[in-house]
């Protein structure tokens, strides 16, 4: 069975191997999950790791458009349903908060400017059809600072993304266009509004795989009011699934 503790703290849901006859099936599509290595051991059942992506049998075409680059800081994008982390209001709706990643263009192999096309977000689950705000900017601080100083952010653009209702893990794409100047740190924020009274919930997705740079969380109701690394917030094994795709 699953046990969920809901209050004004981060929710950590640990799903046992047996769910009393009830379980969730997770479906993946070709090119949806990144991987390290080769062969089938690095991917879900029925997929093979090729050129850093899990491919279905017989797939051979490129996963990305020619010239596209995906910025990433996790070794894979496999959202773990057992890593359920969130902050809830008394009515169990999701409280306001934000999740962040900072990408250094030069360290990511981008020598010049970078034209963002879309951001891909891992979603653990969602109730209703909550709308989140996706924000892009440059960050004058470091890409691995223990906390983020939001006064150092220069906004480049934002958009809203509707998250579909799901009780299985999903990768949700948010289309957003922005040009990031060369030699910049790109900061991405996913801002979740206060959903109190709506009955809606949205929990971001995390992988238990490794990460090269930290993700950050700001949760005024339950945790740090200043964006703090997930490790600093007490979530050392939860690595935020968030990638940015565009063209140099």
Describe the structure.
Strand 3 (47-50) and strand 4 form a beta hairpin. Strands 9-8-11-6-14-15 form a 6-stranded antiparallel β-sheet, with no helix packed on it. Strands 5, 7, 10, 12 and 17 form a 5-stranded antiparallel β-sheet that branches. A two-stranded antiparallel sheet has the order 1-2. The protein is an all-beta fold. 0% of the residues lie in helices and 38% in strands. The model is unreliable at 1-24 (pLDDT under 50).
Number of helices: 0
Main beta sheet strand tally, sense and closure: 6 strands, antiparallel
The portion of residues forming beta strands comes to 35-45%
Helix-residue proportion: under 10%
* Beta-strand segment tally: 17
Q: Which residues form runs of ≥5 with pLDDT under 50?
A: 1-24
In which order are the strands of the major sheet placed? 9-8-11-6-14-15
Distance between the termini: 48 Å
